[in-house]
User: What shape does this take?
Amino acid sequence: MIKIKAKNVDVFYGKKQALYNIGLDIEENQVTALIGPSGCGKSTFLRCLNRMNDVIDICRVKGEILINDFNINDKSCDVVRLREKIGMVFQKPNPFPKTVYENISYGPTIHGMAQSKQEMDEIVETSLKKAALWEEVKDRLYEPGTGLSGGQQQRLCIARAISVRPEVILMDEPCSALDPIATAQIEELIDELKKEHTIIIVTHSMAQAARVSQNTGFFHLGQLIEHGSTDKIFKNPDNTKTQDYITGRFG
Amino acid sequence: MNKNKEQLLNKRYRAERRFRLYGQSAIFMALLFLTIFIFKIFSTGYSAFQKTWLIVPVNFDAEMMMIDQNPSKEDLQDADYYDIALKSMADLDQNANDDQKNQLKRMVSYFFEKEIKNEILNDPSLIGKTKEVYLTASDDLDQVFKGNYPRDLPEDQRRVSDYQLKIFDQLVAKGKVESKFNISFFTYADSREAELAGIASSFMGSIFSILVCLMIAFPVAVLAAIYLEEFAPKNRFTDFIEVNINNLAAVPSIVFGLLGLGVLLAIFHLPRSTPLVGGITLSLMTLPTIIIAARASLKAVPPSIREAALAMGASRMQTTMHHTVPLSMPGTLSGTIIGLAQALGETAPLILIGMVAFVNTIPGSPMDPAASLPVQIYIWAESAERGFVEKVSACIMVLLGFLIIMNLFAQIIRHKFEKKWN
Assistant: This one.
């Protein structure tokens, strides 16, 4: 099933065009990896999906992005509601400088998802369990989230993102600041999360894309060169640029 | 070739040593100036915290006070103390002629009547008895006792006569002159008489001005900073505003004083010489300082925190109020305190709005006329009387003490509560 459908998406930073006519379908409950050299626009595209580009004054987005057949670039789209449905995990772990508990409870609080302290406790516990962090932090829920290790912080951010039960989770190079063990934990987690969420991950690591994703899109110089199942892209790409990038000849 | 290299290396080391020496001597100079400055103030000012008292026997004679033997409280309030006060002083020298009696009277402050009155109000049973009462010595004798008075000048160049000195020396010999901690320096308002002048009025004036300034400048500046930093679009207009805020911070304070005079007093007719007007004027000065500090500390909050909150579905307002502003508060607060400390030391604008007036009452609200500490320093420094010299230094000490405490507080807030971002 198709969850997200991007049609003719152009993005401009001021006068400079960053994305050209992107069209991409994203399957529900699968992991889609976006790969490509630095500055190719894959993060920009990811940020279109929850309208995080709105924050940048000079950034303009054109085209249609349909999520559940609803165009999120339409004026009637409420970004607050949209971002409740589309969670995001960033490149560098960015927990709030508050306690572990407050980090998780923030989203549910502002969206009014818990009626009582008990319900909130439950949300916090399930979110941390889903992020495979519960065992490590259950005794330090009221200590600052910034005191955790890098890998734990990133899982805390994932737990924070899933606390509001988003349908889609966007991950912008979630492992680039982590060591291999923490990376493996996150990858395992992604595999688990795709049962309930649609996941789109931007990554610089070919190996990671091959390991975690079912579909892959290859970006180059603001264009989507090729997309399809990960198997096909990695083993038998149609485009020679894709072939060159994957085999490490450039990028 | 090798030798050349060695020479070059030595040259570089020498240059480094020279540079360090420059730096060290600069710091040494700075410390030296500071030490001289502090030493000078302390050595002139410390004696102001002591006050000289003459111990004079007073006969509380009911007849002279024009009351009966068992007076009521009201009678004591209304009684005439001038005559017994005069007589007590005159009695210091049994053989004094009229002129000498007059000189004897001037050995104490003109509060002597009141001091005698307080004595009997505290203990009405003194009527008809004689008691030794502490009377504030005149400021010249105060200086004589502290050893600051040029006694060896010819008599016609002194304000203290030989006769007064003779009597004073007799009193000293009898142990009837005492020096005690000068409480009245902190509890009395300003006075034309140095021995009775205190900082209570200017101190309260400063406190009220600072409070008014804080209440106006802080909310306005913080809101302006939040809007400019978090909400306003970055365009030529906001750039223009930013440049002008920085310009405002560089405007000489006397210009703000003129503004206060021209607008607050002339157009709005706010009460002259009051901490209210002073505070509003100072708040104009403090505004840019706080805006700049608040913007800097908002800027220091990493964008990743804002993104995290926005990505969770927080609105812009929620992101700002829940995350950015609380995280920027320590920086904003310490900037505010430093701005207030600047305002506390400001003199010129207050002189223009009339806070330089002679105020001998202690203000009870920002609407009452008052001076302020730096203006008090200015007023006293203008006075020719010797007794005011030490008061100037003492007042500087109080003001400096306050500024140091405020700056210390700002440092503590900054170091203790500010988040360090890696």
